[in-house]
């Protein structure tokens, strides 16, 4: 049963990651917003259905299973409907309120067409409200990522401190954790070097990068020197600051012009032994005999994945990881230590914080779609500064800026500095406070 759940989750994540940017790329901005809104609404009502019906009801079991089985038909149907309905973008770049009430009704033949027709009132209100919600929620998602990342960093520091101070193999743990921390810092320095090679970094950007890195190094040294932190916390904090800086500038163009590929000269000897080359040739011939539908499906998947940059996928994966980890860390700090890390948040918790986390876990598919669409809009807005992103601005999108990303960097370091200032060097508190050591 758990294998089916894992496969279902993988298929859901893959289809979501592939179809939403495909709707933006093929149908335009309004098509992508309409498809993500319809998809989020479907999973929202599916979660409400699961919450509203009792667990012991046979009708509830049949209804939930039926809706879950039809989601693989609903998803492509919603995509086709969105491409058919919203693929033609309006040339008017005014807001949805002005486009709806300024003179649109005079061109319609009936009230129903004005409300339900193309570019009607219902379309403008729903898609326009979804657009505003995603735009306004971007700062909240960004700041929540920083807060949850700080929770994960501090929880990791407490666990590693317990391993070194209370376990029987403290020396082995200390050496291993030092090597891991050095590896994390080395990787962060490499990506920081990559950032310095981007061509579009201005003097203001360089100043902000220097200030952020200087503050991060100072906080890392302060934490280790005061004993309130450790190398693992410091390395993870430094890596997160570098990750934020790297995400700010990853939408820039490559540092050098990309020339045409040079033709490769034929080698005197094959790159592999003849038996491997013969097996490779046989495999290619077998693949060429597959039906054309399989080739078309593979080409479609490759083309859909090419519409998303790796920076968006990495940002989505990291943001989901820290949000999910925080739902385990917060109850562990509040209740019974590390035992709570293995328990899912539930609506049956006694306090309000646990119930809120339980609600968020029930509506996780809709939250995933919202977060992913917000990241895609950030990406398209960032690329709109160049010629390749003119289509986003021409369809009513805003030009992106990195203000809230820089605020997230400053806020994360400020919270960590406040924790170092007010915190106490106490091992018997937090996540590992209820662990036992013989």
Blueprint (SSEs and pairs):
Layout: H1 2-27, H2 29-52, H3 58-86, H4 96-101, H5 104-107, H6 111-116, H7 121-166, H8 170-196, H9 203-226, H10 231-249, H11 274-288, H12 292-305, H13 310-334, H14 352-362, H15 364-383, H16 390-394, H17 403-422
Helix pairs in contact: 1-2, 1-3, 1-15, 2-3, 2-7, 2-15, 7-8, 7-10, 7-13, 7-15, 7-17, 8-10, 9-10, 9-17, 10-17, 13-15
Your description of this structure?
This protein has helices at residues 2-27, 29-52, 58-86, 96-101, 104-107, 111-116, 121-166, 170-196, 203-226, 231-249, 274-288, 292-305, 310-334, 352-362, 364-383, 390-394, 403-422. The chain is mainly alpha-helical. α1 (2-27) runs parallel beside α3 and α9 (203-226) packs parallel to α17 (403-422). The radius of gyration is 26 Å and the shape is globular. Residues 252-259, 336-340 and 427-438 have low confidence and may be disordered.
């Amino acid at each position: 049963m758990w294998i089916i759940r894992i496969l279902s989750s993988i298929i859901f994540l893959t289809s979501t990651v592939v179809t939403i940017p495909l709707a933006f790329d093929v149908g335009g901005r309004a098509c992508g917003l309409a498809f993500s809104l319809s998809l989020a609404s479907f999973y929202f009502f599916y979660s409400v259905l699961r919450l509203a019906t009792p667990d012991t009801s046979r009708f509830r079991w049949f209804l939930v299973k039926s809706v879950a089985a039809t989601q693989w038909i609903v998803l492509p149907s919603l995509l086709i409907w969105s491409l058919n309905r919203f693929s033609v973008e309006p040339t008017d770049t005014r807001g949805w309120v002005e486009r709806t009430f300024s003179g649109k009704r005079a061109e319609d033949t009936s009230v129903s067409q004005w409300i339900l027709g193309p570019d009607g009132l219902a379309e403008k209100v729903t898609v326009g409200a979804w657009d505003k919600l995603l735009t306004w929620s971007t700062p909240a998602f960004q700041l929540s990522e920083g807060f949850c990342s700080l929770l994960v960093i501090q929880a990791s520091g407490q666990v590693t401190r317990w391993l070194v101070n209370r376990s029987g193999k403290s020396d082995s743990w200390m050496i291993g954790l030092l090597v891991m921390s050095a590896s994390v810092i080395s990787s962060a320095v490499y990506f920081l070097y990559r950032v310095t090679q981007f061509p579009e970094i201005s003097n203001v950007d360089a100043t902000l990068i220097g200030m952020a890195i200087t503050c991060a190094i100072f906080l890392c040294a302060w934490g280790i020197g005061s004993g309130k932190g450790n190398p693992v916390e410091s390395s993870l904090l430094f890596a997160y600051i570098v990750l934020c800086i790297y995400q700010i500038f990853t939408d820039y163009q490559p540092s050098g012009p990309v020339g045409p590929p040079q033709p490769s000269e034929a080698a005197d000897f094959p790159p592999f032994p003849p038996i491997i080359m013969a097996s490779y040739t046989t495999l290619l011939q077998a693949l060429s005999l597959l039906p054309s539908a399989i080739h078309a499906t593979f080409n479609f998947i490759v083309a859909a994945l090419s519409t998303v940059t790796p920076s968006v996928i990495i940002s989505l994966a990291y943001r989901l990881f820290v949000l999910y980890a925080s739902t385990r860390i917060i109850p562990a700090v509040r209740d019974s230590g590390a035992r709570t890390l293995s328990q899912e948040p539930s609506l049956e918790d006694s306090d309000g914080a646990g119930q809120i986390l339980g609600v968020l876990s029930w509506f996780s598919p809709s939250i995933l779609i919202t977060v992913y669409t917000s990241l895609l809009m950030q990406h398209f807005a960032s690329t709109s500064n160049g010629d390749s992103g003119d289509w986003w601005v021409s369809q009513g999108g805003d030009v992106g800026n990195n203000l809230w990303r820089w605020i997230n960097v400053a806020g994360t370091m400020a919270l960590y500095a406040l924790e170092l200032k007010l915190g106490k060097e106490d091992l018997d508190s937090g996540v590992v406070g209820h662990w036992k050591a013989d």
